[in-house]
């Protein structure tokens, strides 16, 4: 599990005389603080949130612990258990804050059980790992609460759970930093004003809320896998963040089949990353990709995660399981010509029945075109022409252009590729579509 607490060796032995440490040692201590805090901040915020019941305040208290470490570690040395030091410091400040509040009695009664568990006696005493995991799971469900917009959920999750800075999130999504900062502030305020409980839901509510959590992780991955806008097709850092979050969630919820299925889907999709762009960053279509460049380790991990999903599934496969099965069909084919398109078309049919969507139907049309022919697929695509959700979706005319080109209707195909290029916001995709339009002349 990637979020395990690291073991850090003290930079130097404590100075008995209390004399100031060397400049080089102080710099090393500061770097250690920053590195450890980045790794541990999600768990610190999660643990503190259980006490104060407010993710905004919890983040501020975690930052207070960071400041305390920056003041003390360069002077006294990095503690043997730095993660526990930061967590303990933040939790103690949280307890002090609760005790200072005007409504002391009511709040203390509310978190009394937590205080007895989380108030440690020794700064270097590690907290219960299972307890931390429970808190982290609560934080994930809180940050992805449906009361927030999709954009707010993504930003808040990357900030609190992913440990990204506001500027990093802004760069990843090509958004102004001020816009992202406001989005995060509003999200935390909304959670507080709406009284969203810091808890893991149960029963039918958990199933509904889990869908929101998985959606956020999938949206983050997709933005990295095929960037909506900008000059680059891929944003690898976002894919890595999404994969890490999915793997953590699978560790925390081992009996949820759709969680393992999402991990499988992301592992299998990410396995193709190196082959999806050429030397200059240009997109490489699936049929032209060198499968020798596909990451076999990620493929094995993807199949293993899909096996875990199937092992705990008690009913029909969910949408992520079906998408993972589709990705597995591609991963099993050693050459493009070996792809089992009939099975992929069948799986897309099941996915369309399970989660109806114009985008799913468009993907099914592509599979049908390979399994049955472009004419049959064109009928499906033409039925989607009036879908409001696809009105400005550049892949609709792109798919239609490809089908028309395969049918020899090059003039119509060129017009579709040109329209797709005009709708594409990603520069690399636009260049590819313009090239395909020129090839139709």
Automatic annotation (TrEMBL):
Q: Which InterPro entries match?
A: DUF6596 (IPR046531), RNA_pol_sigma-70_dom (IPR014284), RNA_pol_sigma70_r2 (IPR007627), RNA_pol_sigma70_r4_t2 (IPR013249), RNA_pol_sigma_r2 (IPR013325), RNA_pol_sigma_r3/r4-like (IPR013324), WH-like_DNA-bd_sf (IPR036388)
- What does the UniProt keyword field contain? Sigma factor, Transcription, Transcription regulation
Q: Does the keyword Transcription regulation apply?
A: yes
Q: For this entry, list what GO says about its biological process.
A: DNA-templated transcription initiation
- List, for all copies, the residue spans of the domain called RNA polymerase sigma factor 70 region 4 type: 141-191
> According to the UniProt record, where is the region Disordered?
1-22
Q: Which GO terms describe its molecular function?
A: DNA binding; sigma factor activity
Q: Which Pfam family is an annotated match for this chain, by its short name?
A: Sigma70_r2
**What domain of life does the native source organism fall in?**
Bacteria
| Every RNA polymerase sigma-70 region domain range | 40-102
| Boundaries of every DUF6596 domain copy | 209-309
In terms of PANTHER family, this protein maps to: BLL0085 PROTEIN, BLL6612 PROTEIN-RELATED
What NCBIfam families does the database record attribute to this sequence?
Answer: sigma70-ECF
What family does the Swiss-Prot or TrEMBL record give for this protein?
Answer: Belongs to the sigma-70 factor family. ECF subfamily.
Q: Specify the protein name.
A: RNA polymerase subunit sigma-24
């Amino acid at each position: 599990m990637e979020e395990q607490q690291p073991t850090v060796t003290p930079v130097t032995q404590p100075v008995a005389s209390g004399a100031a440490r060397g400049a080089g040692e102080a710099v090393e201590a500061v770097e250690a603080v920053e590195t450890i805090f980045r790794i541990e901040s999600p768990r610190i915020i999660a643990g503190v949130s259980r006490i104060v019941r407010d993710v905004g305040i919890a983040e501020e208290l975690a930052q207070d612990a960071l400041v305390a470490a920056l003041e003390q570690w360069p002077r006294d040395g990095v503690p043997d258990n730095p993660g526990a030091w930061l967590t303990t410091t933040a939790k103690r400040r949280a307890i002090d804050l609760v005790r200072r509040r005007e409504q002391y009695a009511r709040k203390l009664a509310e978190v009394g059980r937590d205080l007895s568990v989380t108030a440690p006696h020794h700064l270097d005493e590690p907290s219960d790992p299972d307890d931390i995991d429970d808190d982290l799971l609560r934080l994930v469900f809180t940050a992805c609460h449906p009361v927030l917009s999709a954009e707010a959920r993504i930003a808040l999750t990357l900030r609190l759970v992913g440990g990204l800075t506001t500027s990093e999130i802004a760069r990843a999504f090509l958004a102004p930093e001020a816009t992202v900062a406001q989005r995060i502030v509003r999200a935390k305020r909304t959670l507080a004003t709406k009284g969203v409980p810091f808890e893991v839901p149960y029963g039918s509510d958990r199933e509904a809320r889990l869908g929101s959590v998985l959606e956020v992780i999938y949206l983050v991955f997709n933005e990295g896998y095929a960037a909506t806008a900008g000059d680059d097709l891929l944003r690898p850092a976002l894919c890595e963040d999404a994969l890490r979050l999915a793997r953590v969630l699978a560790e925390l919820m081992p009996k949820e089949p759709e969680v393992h299925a999402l991990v499988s889907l992301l592992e299998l999709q990410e396995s193709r990353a190196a082959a999806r762009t050429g030397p200059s960053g240009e997109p490489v279509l699936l049929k032209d990709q060198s499968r020798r460049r596909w990451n076999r380790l990620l493929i094995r991990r993807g199949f293993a995660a899909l096996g875990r999903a199937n092992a705990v599934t008690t009913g029909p496969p969910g949408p992520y399981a079906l998408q993972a099965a589709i990705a597995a069909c591609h991963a099993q084919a050693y050459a493009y010509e070996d792809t089992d398109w009939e099975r992929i078309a069948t799986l897309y049919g099941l996915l369309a029945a399970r989660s109806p969507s114009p985008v799913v139907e468009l993907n099914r049309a592509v599979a049908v075109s390979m399994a049955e022919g472009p004419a049959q697929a064109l009928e499906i695509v033409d039925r989607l022409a009036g879908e409001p959700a696809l009105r400005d979706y550049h892949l609709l005319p792109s798919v239609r252009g490809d089908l028309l080109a395969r049918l020899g209707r090059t003039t119509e195909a060129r017009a579709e590729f040109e329209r797709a290029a005009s709708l594409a916001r990603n520069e690399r995709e636009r260049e590819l579509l313009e090239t395909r339009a020129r090839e139709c002349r």
